[in-house]
Specification:
Layout: E1 3-7, E2 10-12, E3 18-25, E4 33-39, E5 45-51, E6 58-60, E7 68-73, E8 78-83, E9 92-99, E10 105-108, E11 112-116
Parallel strand pairs: 2-11
Antiparallel strand pairs: 1-3, 3-8, 4-5, 4-9, 5-6, 7-8, 9-10, 9-11
Length: 118
């Protein structure tokens, strides 16, 4: 069965960095677009970044552009999110998700908490 397991979250000071990982299994990882989505406490889901297949085009929300980098290791079925220059407003539960054939997020991980605070 499809599984997505995030890791790498934690507590970091403003201006710091974290790298999130998402280990994928149960499907042919290299053939799917993948995405990161976050949810701050009491708020709705916010799209963060996408990575496509093939030439691996990447896309970012305006709130993280220039600070976050999405990447994928198809040999090891792992998705990454490198987060630099973190701000308190980046505090959220971060989810990775698989993007299905109808461009819906059809499978989600359990999330990893990122807290940016001094």
């Amino acid at each position: 069965q499809v599984q997505l397991v995030e890791s790498g979250g934690g507590l970091v000071q403003p201006g710091g960095s974290l790298r999130l990982s998402c280990a994928a299994s149960g499907f042919t990882f290299r053939t799917y677009f993948m995405t990161w989505v976050r949810q701050a406490t009491g708020k709705g889901l916010e799209w963060v970044s996408d990575i496509y297949i093939g030439d691996g085009n990447t896309y970012y929300s305006d709130s993280v552009k220039g600070r976050f980098t999405i990447s994928r290791d198809n040999a090891n079925n792992t998705l990454y999110l490198q987060m630099n220059s973190l701000k308190p407003e980046d505090t959220a539960l971060y989810y990775c998700a698989r993007v299905g054939p109808a461009f819906e997020n059809d499978y989600w991980g359990q999330g990893t908490q990122v807290t940016v605070s001094s």
